[in-house]
Amino acid sequence: MKVFRDFIKWFSYITAGILVVCAVNFTLVGSGMIPTITLWQILLSGGLTTLVTMLLYPRANGKKSVVFVGCLLHYAVLCGVMIACGYWFQWLSLDAEGIVMMCLSVAGVYLLAFTAYYIVDLKQAEKINQRLKEKYPN
Predict the structure, then answer these.
(1) What is the distance between the alpha carbons of residues 134 and 131, in angstroms, rounded to a whole number?
(2) pLDDT-above-90 percentage for the chain
């Protein structure tokens, strides 16, 4: 059950991040409306990248260097998945500019998703600490 809850949590953060980055990209490019099919593609790419995150994101209990390399590997695989999705969904062309833009977009989603994850976890930790203080006063 915890795996399912974690998947839903990460899916929410990642898909919201993808949606924000797509909205920014569409605004910068000057496209008027997002096609309906793009919303389904965002959900699918959110699901695929959530699966990658669940499988590859390093646990924080290891050495800092191992976690850092794990994060780089995770980011590289996410870029690969999103470049493939971007090509498949016709979001990008397979040239240097398209690949760089997708890698920057993945970095934006990475930043948004992990910031949301951090903020929510911080709030949960505060609640737990408050309940412990209430239950076990000094």
Answers:
(1) 5
(2) 51
